[in-house]
UniProtKB/TrEMBL annotation:
GO cellular component labels: ATP-binding cassette (ABC) transporter complex
Any one GO molecular-function label of the UniProt entry: ATP binding
Domain named ABC transporter: residues: 2-232
SMART domains: AAA
Descriptive protein name: ABC transporter domain-containing protein
Organism encoding this protein: Butyricicoccus porcorum
One Pfam family named in its UniProt record: ABC_tran
Keywords of the record: ATP-binding, Nucleotide-binding, Transport
Length: 332
């Protein structure tokens, strides 16, 4: 069943206006800091009440401002993984995991043992959160969330509190959790590569609105908005040349990825000229920072380039026509 969301929430000078239908598939909610993605999860979970709108999982209404329906969080059966895990410091690992479980004491203990074995926590059963590493806290929070047998998983930037060397390990476990869950899963992140590794679909959030939705692969190859393009790693944006403005009146710009740029050649219809300001060496490629009339441009230069540029060189760059992207500029 799908999760349907149509809500409005005013927070000071910020407005959240979200309309989306999330299917039975892992979906990344991706956006820059302050875009509203975490607030969306809090509204879905019932932690924050919208000003108006509707939230429903299948035929079950969770929130409806017109009907004055607002189920409390515990009746929504949504598992929420907080950025900082929100473990109970006065409880052991086993005690935290059993929080929210339903059933007899024996059934809870049996389910807890199974989850501790699944997440390699058995030896830590009597430890308290202060005695755990970041990865161990993450696994404990995951086990606690799954112990309540939620219908919907809400994961709020689950790797943000982890050191870089732990993220790969925990990411594998998260991929397994998402693959085994039957139902809606929403993963909040600002990292598009993380979204692609863990989710088949994504919703791009900018300025409190969902501006694009689709498969992660399609959004990577064919972004329609600057907000989405920036999240996928596109760094170069220019005013549209004459004749390229779409028929609708929405303001647009031209985007190009650093790795898609090359020296211009005869027949190129779109070119940009500038001067190399600095070369940044890399393992497989170098990065050229080029000053143009539209600002700084980033150009990825292969190590085997015929004539690698040097600081101070004038350059004229272009790309194959299908590498240029016409992008709507979001009104935030």
């Amino acid at each position: 069943m799908s999760l349907c969301v149509d809500i409005h929430k005013k927070l000071g000078g910020f407005s959240l206006d979200m309309q989306a239908e999330f299917p039975d598939a892992p979906t990344a909610v991706i956006g820059a800091s302050g875009s509203g993605k975490s607030m969306l999860l809090r509204c879905i979970a019932g932690i924050v009440v919208p000003d108006r709108g509707h939230i429903a999982l299948g035929e079950k209404t969770w929130y409806d401002s017109t009907a004055r329906t607002c189920l409390p969080p515990q009746r929504r059966h949504a598992g929420y993984l907080f950025q900082q895990y929100a473990l109970f410091e006065n409880r052991t690992v086993a005690g935290n995991i059993m929080m929210g479980m339903r059933g007899t004491k024996q059934e809870k203990q049996q389910a807890c043992r199974a989850l501790m074995e699944r997440f390699q926590l058995t030896a830590l059963a009597e430890h308290r959160p202060a005695q755990l590493s970041g990865g161990q806290k993450q696994r404990t929070a995951l086990a606690r969330m799954l112990g309540a047998q939620p219908e919907v998983l809400l994961l709020d930037e689950p790797f943000s509190a982890l050191d870089t060397h732990l993220r790969g390990e925990v990411r594998q476990q998260m991929a397994e959790v998402l693959a085994r869950h039957v139902g809606v899963s929403l993963l909040v992140t600002h990292d598009f590569s993380e979204a692609m590794q863990l989710c088949s679909r994504a919703a791009v959030v900018s300025g409190g609105r969902i501006v694009e939705q689709g498969s992660c692969i399609d959004l990577w190859h064919n972004p329609k908005t600057r907000a989405c393009a920036e999240l996928t790693g596109m760094r170069n944006f220019f005013p549209l040349p004459d004749g390229m403005q779409p028929n609708d009146s929405a303001p647009c710009c031209l985007g190009i990825r650093p790795e898609d740029l090359r020296p211009a050649c005869g027949g190129d219809t779109v070119t940009v000229s500038g001067t190399v300001q600095r070369m940044l060496p890399g393992i497989h490629t170098d990065q050229a920072i080029v000053q143009t009339s539209h600002g700084m441009l980033l150009w990825t230069v292969p190590h085997d380039a015929d004539s690698p540029p040097q600081a101070g060189d004038p350059v004229m760059l272009s790309a194959d026509p299908d590498r240029f992207h016409i992008l709507k500029i979001d009104k935030t």
